[in-house]
Amino acid sequence: MFITAVSSVANCNAVNLAVSDFARTILRPRNLTAESGPTDLIAFHFNRSTSQVVPTAPAGGMLNGAAAATIRIIYGSSGFNQFANNPITASLSPYPVALATPDVTITMTITNAYSKAPATPSNCNITIRGVLGKRLA
User: Fold this and answer.
1) Is 60 left (phi over 0), alpha (psi -120 to 50) or beta?
2) How far apart are CA 11 and CA 4, in angstroms?
3) Could you tell me if residue 27 is inside a domain?
4) Mean pLDDT by 10 residues, the chain (137 residues)
5) Less CB within 10 Å around the terminal CB: N or C of the chain?
């Protein structure tokens, strides 16, 4: 997936995010198999950091239509942080994702991406978009 928009070039540069940055992305849709669990999960692997997004609002574990999420980050320095109820917007198509779904288009906006701490927000909002294909075997 690619970052398609940022709220502030300067603020996003400060946390190493910019328009056209690529993230290897893994979507684990909910309730596909016993191992899938009850919550959609998505992880982004950027060149310098990694994050996992776990939808928290509205309740039900659905990423499509989510308004908030717990975001876990591993920074390039190997530091770790977690942010609860971080505002996001997310749209997946088609949704729900089924085992036979060949690809999913995802658009997400993440508020205060890659903040260092809850008390010091990054003021960098990103929009990330892409089409994820089904992994075969």
Assistant:
1) left
2) 16
3) yes
4) 98 96 96 89 94 95 97 92 96 95 97 92 97 84
5) C
Which amino acid type is present at position 109? T
User: Are 117 and 86 spatial neighbours (Cβ–Cβ below 8 Å)?
Assistant: no
Sheet containing 68-74: which strands, arranged edge to edge?
2-6, 126-133, 103-110, 80-93, 68-74, 50-57, 41-45, 24-28
C-alpha span between 35 and 23 (Å, rounded) = 24
* Residue-range definition of the domain harbouring residue 59: 2-131
Say if CB 4 and CB 19 are below 8 A apart: yes
Whether residue 136 is contained in a domain is answered as: no
Amino acid at 106: I
Residue 85, CA distances (Å) to 20, 51, 54, 101, 112 in order: 26, 15, 10, 29, 12
Taking the whole predicted model, whether its pTM rises above 0.70 is answered as yes
* 137: in domain: no
**What is the tally of structural domains in the chain?**
1
